[in-house]
Amino acid sequence: MLKQQRAKLVVGNWKMHGRLAANAALLQAVVQGSDEMPADVRVGVCVPSPYLAQTQLLLEGSRVAWGVQDVSAFTHGAYTGEVAAPMVVDFGATFAIVGHSERRAYHRESAELVAVKTQRALEAGLTPIVCVGETLEEREAGSTERVVGAQLDEVLAKLSVQEAARLVVAYEPVWAIGTGKSASSEQAQAVHAFLRARLAAKGAAVADVPLLYGGSVKPENAEELFRQSDIDGGLIGGASLKDQDFLAICKAAAATSVAG
Ligand code: PEP
């Protein structure tokens, strides 16, 4: 099959890491490195919300986009501790990760809640990065497609075709996140192809939404993953905290991009 000519996208998920001084050094290095990327490689970082102002200050006018790792299912109100999507937009952010497996597991976020958060992010003008993924038990039981399909369907069911076309979807097998044990490029491609078909079934305009792979992506395995026909880039956790590693992963995306 001919390789699809889609742009690449690499987004860092800092999780609950960072302090002002370390962030500044990391963001400055990423800005510098991203200047060398071809135009069809987009780079982003999703930072802890308290650092949005700092991130905006350091990234505004650069090639690097920024965002958050979660948004509230509400627009405003008595929801102590929550951060609403419009607040995030006030700081120039464009991305919001929703449905990360750590939130599904540790904060008991249901597929339905993830779908509502996706709607709130879209309404505010953000690009939701919707994460789906199976546990090791689910993979070993042969349930991967059923699990990720149901997670995606719950979101798609709440969206119009036009809204769904604005998504980014990240396949993040839970057993590969932060474990050092990445899915093989064949395993990842198989799930991405399945997700691509599911997206296409929603409407032709949805078929080409960026599909990112996440789960122990490192400089050593990034290029092979990104060469797969349905893998449009990566959502990078641990390696996004090290400038050299993150930029090496961005370079791998550039090597596999159309212009690269
Ligand atoms: C993530 O947290 O989204 C992730 C993919 O983590 P890691 O790269 O560390 O596995």
Q: Which features would summarize this protein structure in a list?
A:
TIM Barrel, 11 helices, Triosephosphate_isomerase, isomerase, alpha/beta, 260 residues, binds phosphoenolpyruvate
Structure, explained:
It is found in: Cytoplasm. Its EC number is 5.3.1.1. This is Triosephosphate isomerase. It contains eleven helices and eight strands. The protein starts with 7 loop residues before the first strand and ends with a helix. It has a single domain, classed as Aldolase class I (TIM Barrel, Alpha-Beta Barrel), CATH 3.20.20.70. Helix 1 (about 20-35) runs parallel beside helix 11 and helix 10 (about 220-225) packs parallel to helix 11 (about 245-255). The longest helix is centred in the last third of the chain and has 18 residues, at about 185-200. About 40% of the residues lie in helices and about 15% in strands. Strand 6, helix 9 and strand 7 (about 210-215) form a beta-alpha-beta unit. An eight-stranded parallel β-barrel has the order 1-2-3-4-5-6-7-8, surrounded by seven helices. The structure holds phosphoenolpyruvate. Phosphoenolpyruvate binds next to strand 8.
Brief account:
The protein has 260 residues and is of the alpha/beta class. It has helices at residues 20-34, 52-59, 85-89, 101-106, 111-123, 136-140, 144-157, 161-164, 185-202, 219-226, 243-256, and strands at residues 8-13, 41-46, 64-68, 95-98, 127-132, 168-171, 211-214, 233-236.
